[in-house]
Write a structure and sequence with these properties.
The protein starts with a helix and ends in a 5-residue tail after the last helix. The longest helix has about 35 residues, at about 275-310. By secondary structure, the chain is an all-alpha fold. About 80% of the residues lie in helices and about 0% in strands. It has one domain. It has helices at about 5-20, 25-40, 40-55, 65-75, 80-90, 100-115, 115-135, 140-150, 160-170, 175-200, 205, 225-245, 250-270, 275-310, 310-325, 325-340, 345-365, 370-380, 390-400, 405-430, 430-435. Helix 5 (about 80-90) crosses helix 12 (about 225-245), helix 9 (about 160-170) runs parallel beside helix 17 and helix 12 (about 225-245) runs antiparallel to helix 13 (about 250-270). About 50% of the residues are buried. The radius of gyration is 22 Å and the shape is globular.
Length: about 450
């Protein structure tokens, strides 16, 4: 067999193994080892797997993963998410569909210190949905807003997906973080426009019995001092982490350490942290970190095996020739990412596709930072699309409401999928939105 045939066979076996339930990291390691052994020999395969483990995991940069994960978990238990929603609720209450817009912007701010979409979905399903339904919004719309805006957690920095992409593409994590700011704000704006548009033209979808305004339930009154008190912790943490990162005072790992320390101080001051809770958070951070790093190691091995086979170069020559061209390849790649998002989780999609797609994207002359942003946006759509829809199932589990059907949440989230498609089109036409800040 030629190297290219072995590469194709390896991809087919990996997809089959994942379909049968094998953990993706284990499947990648076994398939990659077998592929290298067939292309070269067993000795080279053994040597390469050791080199990959050493090269992939010894980087100082990888300390950023547990630090940002711990920061997000500490912020989640400290109640900062509710305070953030309260502040934006007060600011947006006069706007038509204002509670929906408040949820979007509260999610955007919360995303800037968690980096995980599922954390946002969990927090705001318990905070925003009851408040929205109390004021006359339908459960379908309220849960759809929370699901849709939760995707901002993986785009607005710090973002776990951005870290994974930066490692696979050998790009700067700091630049990837910067690249997520503009697209994150763009999506937040599109989501807000979608909410306002539905509140004006699709009242039956947004409000109970087609009401054109929220009911007469009173909002909790907040004084200026209350707003400052609620806003101060989260905006201090955002300033500390992102200000230090973008100002050039901190590298990503140092920003993660400062952020984790700041989140710990906030949790202690709010007395929301016991020794048992803190220990559980440390253990959970360890589990998430180990799983992410193991997947990165497996993906690196898979990428080197494919490079050895020559398959990515051959695909680049075929796809970028008369058959598709650069933007035809981009469209095909994004469609595949969105379809896979209906079946498997975000990190798995990136680990499977990027070793194949990145060499082709380089041959196409694409800016890899812009390509990464497009990839993350497309991957995040999978959180909202059936049957996988992880954010949707997270909200269903967090709500624990027998009258709330999963199908209703998917229908509520569908307008935000359309808004993300519009966002992808805008980012494709105007790549400067993604790269201008990262290239400063």
């Amino acid at each position: 067999m030629t190297g290219i045939e072995i590469g194709i066979l390896a991809i087919g076996i990996l997809i089959l193994a994942i379909s049968l339930g094998m953990p993706i990291g284990v499947g990648m390691l076994l398939v990659s080892f077998g592929g290298v052994m067939m292309i070269r020999n067993e000795r080279v395969a053994m040597s390469m797997i050791g080199a990959v483990a050493n090269d992939s995991l010894r980087e100082y940069l990888f300390a950023v993963v547990p630090l940002f994960v711990l920061m997000g978990l500490l912020v989640t238990v400290s109640g900062v998410g509710k305070d953030t929603f309260d502040v934006f609720e007060r600011l947006m209450r006069k706007l038509v569909g204002g509670l929906g817009v408040a949820t979007v912007f509260a999610n955007a701010v919360f995303a800037s210190i968690t980096g995980v979409s599922i954390a946002s979905a969990t927090v705001f399903s318990k905070v925003a949905v009851p408040e929205m339904t109390r004021h006359g919004y339908t459960k379908r719309f309220a849960t759809g807003v929370v699901a849709g805006s939760s995707v901002l957690g993986m785009l607005i920095p710090p973002s776990l997906l951005m870290i994974v992409y930066a490692v696979l593409a050998e790009e700067s994590v700091g630049r990837m973080f910067l690249a997520g700011v503009g697209p994150g704000l763009l999506l937040a704006g599109l989501f807000s426009l979608a909410i306002i548009g539905m509140a004006i033209w699709r009242k039956d979808f947004v409000f109970e019995a087609g009401e054109d305004a929220v009911d007469d339930v009173e909002f909790e009154e907040l004084s200026s001092l209350d707003i400052i008190r609620k806003a101060l912790p989260i905006f201090s943490l955002v300033t500390l982490v992102l200000g230090g990162l973008y100002g050039g005072f901190l590298n990503p790992t140092e920003a993660g350490a400062v952020g984790a320390a700041g989140a710990l101080v906030i949790a202690l001051l709010r007395r929301s942290l016991t020794l048992k809770i803190f220990w559980n958070l440390l253990v959970e951070s360890g589990h998430i970190t180990v799983s992410v790093l193991f997947l990165i190691m497996a993906a690196t091995f898979f990428s080197r095996m494919l490079a050895m086979s020559g398959l990515p170069n051959m695909l680049g020559e075929i796809l970028l020739g008369d058959f598709l061209g650069p933007y035809g390849f981009l469209l095909l790649f994004l469609v595949i990412v969105i379809l896979l998002g209906c079946l498997i989780d975000s990190i798995s999609i990136m680990l499977i596709l990027l070793p194949i797609a990145l060499p082709v994207a380089q041959q196409a002359g694409f800016d890899l930072i812009w390509f990464g942003v497009m990839t993350v946006v497309a991957v995040e759509m999978g959180l909202l699309t059936p049957p996988f829809g992880l954010s949707v199932y997270t909200i269903k589990a967090a709500m624990n409401d027998p009258d709330l059907k999963v199908g209703d949440i998917f229908r509520g989230a569908f307008p935000f999928v359309l808004a993300m498609i519009v966002g992808l089109i805008i980012l494709a036409i105007f790549p400067q939105i993604s790269i201008w800040l990262a290239r400063l």
